[in-house]
Amino acid sequence: MDRSPDLPITRSPDRYAIIAGNGHFPFLVLDAAREQGLEPLIVAIKEETSPELAEKTKDIRWVSLGEVGKCLDLMVAEKVTKVVLAGQVKHAQLFSKIKADGMMSRMLHGLSRKNTDMLIGTVVRMIEGRGMKVVDSTLFLKPLLPEAGTLTRRAPDADE
Q: What is the model's pTM?
């Protein structure tokens, strides 16, 4: 793309990664990041992420759901500083057929409760323990979200 010489090129000091689960949400986050001039690394979960996401970017790496160590090492090697979790992941798979690496096995064994909140919280702490920050999944989507207030012609009454 040609740029006018008087337009500054802004570069973010941060390197973003999107850990992509299933559904359309990872596509929306990638498109919105690009609208803001960013080209994030996509870490796609083999058992979850749509293969079509690879058609939208060359900066994609595939990892299995059970390869948390590989995922973390990859993001560190790619100098990722901020991570967005986008798309659903069927966590129940972790307790059944997925082959877990050593890090994932230790994580699962150490959980006091085996629910989604505990799993996500533990993964976030593991990511942040490697020096990366997990950011709001709607970070790039803010321009698409409505502002606070009434969105229709009529505001709801007190009973509504």
A: 0.80
